[in-house]
Amino acid sequence: MSGRGGFKAMIEERGRVLALDETGIWVETVQRSSCHSCAAKSGCGTGLLGDFWRRASQVRVEVLPQALMDIRLHDTVVIGIAENTLASSALIVYLLPLVALVLGAVIGQSLGAEIWAILGALAGLALGALAIRLYSHINRANPALTPQFLRLEREYSCSSIPVAEVR
C-alpha cells in the first residue's frame, strides 16, 4: 500500500542508540505504555513481562554513512517499518502455527484415536514453528522486512531510560 508520492505508510518508533558500528546502529525502542508509572505496577503481570522481554526491543538498523556521522551514543532516533510489512509478518507469525496445529489435529483425528489427534496437533505446531523459523532465515537480509533509519531527533530525549547491554 503506497501513500502519496509513492511513499509507503510507515509505523514509526523512537529509540535510543545503544551502540554504533561501521554501517549501522543498535537501537533500544522506548516503551510508550504507562506500565511503569501505574499505581498497580507491583502487582501487574504486564509490566513484569515487559521487563523480562526487554532485550526483544533492541534492534540493529542500517544507516547511510552520511547520516551515521551525525549520530552519537544515547541519541534519540526514529526508526520505521512499512505498515503492510508489519501486518503481513504478524499474520504469518501468528496464523501459520495455529493453522498447522489445527491441520495436524484433524489429520491425527482421521487416524482414529484421540491420542493421534493430540500428537498430530503437537506435530503441526512444531512444523508451523519450523516454517516460521525457515521464513525468518530466508528473509533475514530482505530490506523490506528490516527497520529503516528515518531521522535523528534532537528535541526528544530518551536519556531517562537506563542503558542495557548489547550482545
How is this structure best described in words?
The chain is an alpha+beta fold and 167 residues long. Helices cover 39% and strands 21% of the residues. It has helices spanning 45-52, 65-68, 83-110, 114-138, and strands at 10-20, 24-29, 58-62, 76-82, 148-153. Helix 3 (83-110) runs antiparallel to helix 4. It starts with 9 loop residues before the first strand and ends in a 14-residue tail after the last strand.
Task: Outline the fold blueprint.
Layout: E1 10-20, E2 24-29, H1 45-52, E3 58-62, H2 65-68, E4 76-82, H3 83-110, H4 114-138, E5 148-153
Antiparallel strand pairs: 1-2, 1-4, 2-3, 4-5
Please describe the structure with a list of short key phrases separated by commas or semicolons.
alpha+beta; disordered N terminus; elongated; disordered C terminus; five-stranded antiparallel beta sheet; 167 residues
Uncertain regions spanning at least 5 consecutive residues: 1-5, 162-167
Q: Span between N and C termini?
A: 35 Å
Main pleated sheet: 5 strands, antiparallel
Percent range of helical residues: 25-40%
Q: What is the rounded Rg? A: 21 Å
Number of helices: 4
Could you say which structural class the secondary elements and strand pairing correspond to? alpha+beta
Q: Strand order, biggest sheet? A: 3-2-1-4-5
Average of pLDDT: 79
**Molecular shape:** elongated
Would you count the extended β strands for me? 5
Element order: H for helix, E for strand: EEHEHEHHE
> What percent strand?
15-25%
